[in-house]
Amino acid sequence: MAMANKIPSNVVIKTREMHTAGEPLRVVESGFPSPRGDTILDKIRYTREHLDPYRKLLMNEPRGHLDMFGAVLVEPDHKDADIATMFIHNAGYSTMCGHAIIALGRYSVDTGLVRNPSSPETRVAIQCPCGLVEAFVEYKDGKTGNVRFNSVPAFVFATDVSVDVPGYGHVTVDIVFGGAFFAFVADSQYNFRLEEVASDVIRSAAAATTDALKIQLKLSHPDSDDLAFLYGTIVTDGQDERADITSSHICVFAERQ
């Protein structure tokens, strides 16, 4: 087993490169040492402590980039799971990822991990660190298509939380769990509109909000303390409270990803 500070010089890691509407997913198929642990959360802790250089090798330049995202397939410990995965990114490990679930749904059917696919949809049960997620993959004439999914139960942790964000003043956010904890904040809190500013402006405001909340807010989760961390901030156009229109969002997570 590799130690935390060393990767063998002859290591060969095989990946499958995918994307969901442009968001990348690097699926690790082989070459990543098997993490120890009874549950996925145990495996994440072990990987963080003993195998983190492999994450950095796969996510960081020159083989990756700031916005790279990865899925490391592991043995499921849930009896109903078809596959199980850890999620990795530029700063560490995630408990849930929607775009990765969509890609993994097609991957599981295309590569035969799910046997006997059915039309018009094939169900793929994916065990994530946050729990079991169901993906439904369109399947016709041997080809996969669109994917939808049911995530783990979501809940509102807190509303109208006031946080002092350096450089932006007091900002009011809602804290919501949907497989991972996010802060939701309207763009008007920063005195700009999503469609009128560069992405780096949004990235900086959201990241500053996340950093401030991590200091000022204590999170908890009923299932595991390993889920009780703020993953990022989602900046909305302020229209998300209306069900009759489409709203726009920018999600900034991990290390300003």
Please tell me about this protein's structure.
This protein is of the alpha+beta class and 257 residues long. The protein has 4 helices and 13 strands. It has helices at 40-50, 52-59, 98-110, 199-216; strands at residues 14-20, 23-30, 70-74, 83-88, 93-94, 121-128, 131-140, 143-150, 155-165, 169-177, 181-186, 230-236, 249-253. The strands form 2 sheets. Strands 1, 2, 3, 4, 5, 6, 7 and 8 form an 8-stranded mixed beta sheet that branches. It has a 5-stranded mixed beta sheet with strand order 9-10-11-12-13, covered by helices on one side. The protein is globular, with a radius of gyration of 19 Å. The mean pLDDT is 94.
Distance between the termini: 30 Å
Give a short account of the largest sheet: 8 strands, mixed
Mean pLDDT: 94
Beta-strand content? 35-45%
Q: Please state the structural category.
A: alpha+beta
Number of strands: 13
Task: State the share of residues found in helices, binned by percent.
Answer: 10-25%
The stretches of 5 or more residues where confidence is low (pLDDT under 50) are none
The helix count comes to 4
Any idea what the shape is?
globular
Give the SSE string. EEHHEEEHEEEEEEHEE
